[in-house]
Design brief:
mainly beta, elongated, 3 helices, Immunoglobulin-like, 12% helix, Complement Module, domain 1, six-stranded mixed sheet, Laminin
Length: 403
């Protein structure tokens, strides 16, 4: 004969099962309430009913073709124009659009008064033109135009060569150059352009430009790779959030994840595990359906699988905490954190930060561009017997740049 569990052990097991079932019941009730709201909205609308057609603004475009209740359309303006009105409009249950019809207004580049030394600014589409006063020239009237007859003819052959400005002081000739130019050798009447990109490529003050330096006559400008904009200081690069500005091509069943220099369209699927089924309870989380009482294989499967996406720059310094996983409440007497799979151990490890929290730690830099995945497992135990498992899948998108 075999020993039967005591009444106390049976009652303890039943209490644990009851707690698990209560938690699942609360989750499903919440999902059911959300579903009922959506069904009520759909039932209140007439079949095939749509909001009136809505056009894209002039010098802009519209994103979204479905005009049924609950659906949204988004608007973007062409380069050189700014949006005035509603960026997003939703088709309401009464078949009318929310917000106001937007228009794309030409950005007035003259508003910042770019023309110097008395120049007059004329606004153009995606730009401006400066009409300079006599004696001044350049794109913003920043350079003085020499008028002396002694100017060297060769100084007008190239924008990289300009005549100097000379004056007599106590019988001695002193010549100077415009900003960005220097005296060309022994000929003090000719000034040549200074290549700032080459001269200041490296130094104690660092590079002139974070990414690429382009030398220009009398100066320089910085450029950034695709997916970045030049910052106001003209030297650094700022990532463009294509997801927030709706400059992406992700479908409605995909999530747009902004990355440094671009974006990623991802789909989240629930796991397919034998003897266990899952339901998506949020865009990033799947929970296991209740298991049959006699199914041990089902009870050993993860109770939930969550997905998280991180965007980082290339060669980020390590060690560094990338993500934390915490338990809201603990049913058992032990909480264990671990890193699944061997591939992720090249760059990550998992360590406990406190009793209820584990953290994913980056232990070695990652050279981009790359995509690295890590799975963190949190397990609840009672007297070394597994009560529940929770899987967190962390996907890290690494940029090809270090900014």
């Amino acid at each position: 004969p075999q020993d039967c569990p005591s009444k106390q052990d049976m009652q303890s097991s039943l209490r644990q099962v009851h707690k698990l079932l209560s938690a699942h019941e609360e989750s499903y009730l919440q999902n059911l309430r959300t579903l009922r709201k959506k069904l009520s909205l759909l039932q209140s609308a007439k079949p095939n009913a749509t909001c009136p057609n809505i056009d894209a603004p002039a010098s802009g475009r519209k994103l979204g073709k479905v005009h049924h209740p609950g659906h949204e359309v988004h608007f973007l303006c062409d380069l050189g124009f700014e949006l005035v009105g509603s960026e997003t409009r939703q088709c309401r249950a009464n078949l009318s659009w929310s917000g106001q019809q937007p228009v794309c207004r030409d950005i007035n580049e003259c508003a910042s008064f770019p023309c110097m030394n008395g120049g007059t600014c004329e606004n153009e589409v995606n730009g401006f033109v400066c009409i300079c006063d006599k004696g001044w020239g350049g794109s913003t009237c920043q350079s003085q135009v020499p008028t002396s007859a002694s100017s060297s003819p060769q100084a007008t052959l190239s924008p990289a060569i300009r005549p100097s400005h000379c004056s007599q002081v106590q019988g001695t000739t002193h010549c100077t150059c415009d900003p960005g130019y220097t005296i060309s050798g022994r000929d003090t009447t000719v000034c040549t352009d200074i290549d700032e990109c080459e001269l200041f490529h490296t130094g104690q003050a660092g590079r002139l430009c974070l990414h690429t330096c382009v030398n220009m006559a009398g100066g320089y400008r910085c450029s950034c790779p695709s997916g970045y904009n030049v910052t106001r200081d003209g030297r650094n690069c700022k990532d463009v959030d294509e997801c927030a500005t709706r400059q992406h091509n992700c479908s409605r069943d995909q999530l747009c994840i902004n990355t440094y220099g671009g974006f990623q369209c991802v789909r989240v699927y629930c796991p397919r595990i034998r003897n266990a089924t899952y339901a998506k309870t949020s865009p990033l989380r799947c929970e296991r359906n209740p298991c049959p009482v006699d199914s041990r294989a089902c009870s050993q499967a993860p109770n939930s699988v969550s997905h998280h996406f991180l965007s980082v720059v290339s060669n980020m310094s390590a060690p560094r905490v990338m993500f934390r996983v915490s338990a809201v409440r603990v049913i058992g007497d032990t909480l264990r954190f671990s890193l699944l799979g061997s591939h992720a151990r090249r760059h990550f490890t998992v360590q406990r930060s406190d009793r209820l929290t584990g953290q994913l730690l980056l232990v070695s830099p990652i050279q981009g561009p790359a995509m690295v995945e890590a799975e963190v497992e949190m397990t609840e135990l009672e007297k070394r017997v597994q009560l529940a498992r929770y899987i967190t899948k962390v996907t890290v998108f690494v940029s090809q740049y270090d900014f």
